[in-house]
Amino acid sequence: MIRFDNVTKKYAGTTKPALNAVDFEVKRGEFIFLVGASGSGKSSCLRLVLKEEKPSEGTVHVLGHNVSSISNRKIPYFRRNLGVVFQDFRLLPNKTVFENVAFTLQVIGKSRGFVQEAVPDVLKMVGLDNKAQRMPHELSGGEQQRVAIARAIVNKPQVLLADEPTGNLDPATSAGIMQLLERINANGTTVVMATHEAAIVDKMQRRVIELVEGTIVRDETHGGYGTTAVIPELGPRKERGVDAEKAKRAAREAAREAPTTQSVVTPRRSAVVAPVETDAAEDPAAMADETSTAPAEALSAPSSRSGEAPDTDSTPPWVVRAADDDAGDDPANETDRRAATDAAAQAGEPERAVDERPAQPLTQSQPIIGLPLASGPLPEDTQEHLSLAERLGLRAGKPRDEDKEQNVGPTQ
Ligand SMILES: Nc1ncnc2c1ncn2[C@@H]1O[C@H](COP(=O)(O)OP(=O)(O)OP(=O)(O)O)[C@@H](O)[C@H]1O
User: Fold this and answer.
1) 0.95 surpassed by complex ipTM
2) Atom number, ligand 1, closest to the C-alpha of residue 43
3) Nearest C-alpha to atom 18 of ligand 1 is from which residue?
4) Can you give the pLDDT at residue 269?
5) Where are the stretches annotated Disordered (predicted)?
6) Å from CA of 18 to ligand 1 middle
7) Closest among 104, 101, 110 to 132, alpha carbons compared
8) Which of 167-171, 331-335, 377-381, 398-402 has the highest mean pLDDT?
9) For residues 392 and 317, is the Cβ–Cβ distance under 8 A?
């Protein structure tokens, strides 16, 4: 179902590979955890599966296809088989729960009748049938993640990729989300989940692939989180500014004055958080960049860290470019405008109406499903060939002739 053959991934401008000669295979119906310290390469694996990045060496096979051989035009069809869930939910803020889930089906041209049937079904499955008309901001974090999961599975993908899906949730809520993912897996969907949550991995006792600096150090059928996957950052990071230095000095003094006080710092989360607190007050961007709390951002803007152009079609399927002059101050309006445009396209407007929208600036990206902005320009060739729905992985209508060749298409 997914196979990495000797895959090495080196990002442009870096010397150390993010993934180094990685080999693994995921069989149909498996539930796999990818674990490892921050920066060990978990998100890179997911990006390679989604064909947001391409391997520097080796091959990635997904659903029988060597992903390197899938053309940009066919990526949307390919991605229809892959549901994706992120730490930060990424819902359309001004659409109801029902509409958020329905949107996925509308853009691939499902009939109204189908939508009316499928959406309540999936909302029931995730336990939100009584909240269909709520807006995302009226939901708890756990409920929002359920909506995101409903959206990811409503089209019955063969694989569900989850990048830290419980990263923003408390333990009890996380447990509920994990039960839901287990249920989805029990219904036949292969699940690959990147996580830092040791308790979850330990409890589930599923297959665990552990990465250390881009290398697989463990592939265990019924594994726990392990010890090397612990985030190793224990020392204070590079100070930023006078205040950070002052705060640190104060902390040192306090420690001298109360040498017997037991530390409340736990090895994993707070080891990262504790030294960051002073820095973060000065430099929230640094916080976002350096803590383990933003893998989804990393996924949505894969080229941002290097500051260089992505080395492949790294635009996520859900991101479309914004026309900055009509986006106004409210990105949600733009999102809705695009959704409406797309819905019109689904309603019979010829496809060229979507494809022939005026060229838009290459430097700005706009979230389509309530997502953060992608930071880099889209590859030109992707721009030329992909419509909105294609970029979503959801293009409606019949495949074009050339699409048939490769037989990459929606789940039949
Ligand atoms: N677009 C990029 N450009 C340059 N380097 C990158 C890029 N994306 C990731 N990296 C680097 O590749 C390595 C692996 O990153 P990756 O995001 O895959 O790790 P991760 O295990 O998912 O981390 P986290 O748990 O913090 O999300 C890191 O050293 C990271 O800095």
Assistant:
1) yes
2) 22
3) 41
4) 32
5) 227-412
6) 6
7) 101
8) 167-171
9) yes
Which residues touch 78 (CB under 8 Å, ≥6 apart)? 51, 62, 63, 65, 67, 70, 393, 408
**Overall average pLDDT of the 268-280 stretch:** 31
* Predicted pLDDT of residue 259: 39
Separation of alpha carbons 363 and 173, rounded Å:
38
Res 18 pLDDT > 60: yes
Q: Does residue 42's CB lie within 6 angstroms of at least one atom of ligand 1?
A: yes
Residue type, 82: L
Best of 20, 38, 192, 293 to mutate for ligand 1, by most ligand atoms within 8 A of CB? 38
For residue 341, pLDDT over 70 is answered with: no
| Residue 287 confidence (pLDDT) | 29
310 C-beta closer than 6 A to ligand 1: no
Q: How many CB atoms lie within 10 A of CB 188?
A: 10
Q: Is the CB of 289 under 6 A from ligand 1?
A: no
pTM value is: 0.64
Instruction: Give the CA-trace dihedral at 28, 168, 150, 321, to 10 degrees.
Output: -100
At 310 the pLDDT is: 40
